[in-house]
Write a structure and sequence with these properties.
Bound molecules: 4'-deoxy-4'-aminopyridoxal-5'-phosphate
Structural class: alpha+beta
Order of helices and strands: EEHEEEHHEEEHEEEEHEHEEEH
Shape: globular
Helix content: 25-40%
Number of helices: 7
Distance between the termini: 27 Å
Largest sheet: 9 strands, mixed
Length: about 290
């Protein structure tokens, strides 16, 4: 764990940052978070946070879903992120975890499960984390389904929703897979535990549309733009499970996994069972983008 963390306007020693056990974020999962990678560059200097402002814009959206108004602007949070890296004297790739969580009932708020009338805090921590760009994934299909939008806004990255991802990962890794695919409530393709999924069929990129209850991934958006720029036809729509097995390529995209070609789905090979041509080009594009000199 890093030495310094940011907590509600102050820089604190991570080891000293204790929280009361009664906080609502802990009791009810009422917290929103982000994961931001920072990449070191061959020209030296501090690792640079990748697409920090986009992550903070999503954090703002997630907070709105929890009826929280962030005290800092996205720009301020991006600056704090760079300061976190600097204060911890990090020189190599790392991962920043901003989290905003509900704390205590404000005076006059009765005890109970609620969003209104509850205070909030913000914390930023970081951990060293190497890039895993291009590592392949053997994907299993979990019986646990993605939490539907009807239960919780899926456009928001809310802590409580990750119980479904954790259950799905445990189930699939216990069966020997690397990661889990979660289906929508009606059995269509949603996303993997912490990443979006993109298929290539010939000259077309296909990915579940946002109305399928997926998280609007920042990497997903970047990859779809890259696809359009490289003359692929990009199609966002509901995706049937069978389409996965017939795809030329299946790729997981997200901050944590970066770009990860899927070599098999529930034991069935995808394409020729290795990194495909689109994924290979995408990995190189992503590498250049993230390692770009400032
Ligand atoms: N879906 C889920 C459930 C995730 O946790 C993530 C990681 N934030 C993603 C998709 C990918 O989003 P992004 O590319 O913004 O990291």
């Amino acid at each position: 764990m890093s030495t310094y963390a940011y907590l509600d306007g102050a820089w604190v020693n991570s080891a000293d940052a204790h929280l009361p056990i009664s906080i609502q974020g802990l009791q009810y999962g009422t917290a929103a978070f982000e994961g931001i990678r920072a990449y070191s560059c061959h020209t030296g200097g501090l690792p640079r946070p990748f697409m920090a402002e986009e992550h903070y814009q999503r954090l703002q959206t997630s907070c709105e879903a929890l009826r929280i108004t962030l005290d800092n602007s996205c720009e301020e949070l991006a600056t704090l992120t760079s300061e976190l890296i600097e204060r911890n004297a990090i020189r190599d790739d790392c991962y920043i975890r901003p989290v905003v969580f509900k704390t205590m009932f404000l005076p006059g708020t009765p005890f109970g499960v609620r969003l209104a009338g509850v205070g909030h805090s913000i914390a930023l921590t970081l951990v060293p984390m190497k890039s895993r760009l291009g590592e392949t994934t053997r994907l299993g299909i979990a019986t646990t389904r993605r939490v539907p939008n009807a239960s919780m806004p899926t456009r928001a990255k809310i802590s409580g929703a990750y119980v479904a991802s954790a259950l799905a990962v445990d189930e699939c890794t216990a069966s020997g897979y690397d990661d889990a695919l979660l289906l929508t409530s009606d059995g269509r393709v949603a996303e993997a535990s912490t990443s979006n999924i993109i298929l290539r069929h010939g000259g077309e990129l296909v990915t579940p549309s946002l109305d399928q209850g997926i998280l609007p991934g920042i990497t997903r958006s970047l990859v779809l733009t890259y696809g359009r720029e490289t003359s692929l036809n990009v199609c966002e729509r509901p995706v049937e499970l069978i389409e996965l097995f017939n795809a030329d390529e299946v790729i997981l995209v997200g901050t944590g996994v970066e770009i990860s070609p899927v070599t098999s789905v529930s034991g069935n090979s995808i394409g020729n069972g290795a990194t495909g041509e689109f994924a290979a080009a995408l990995i190189e594009y992503f590498r250049k983008l993230t390692r770009l000199a400032a």
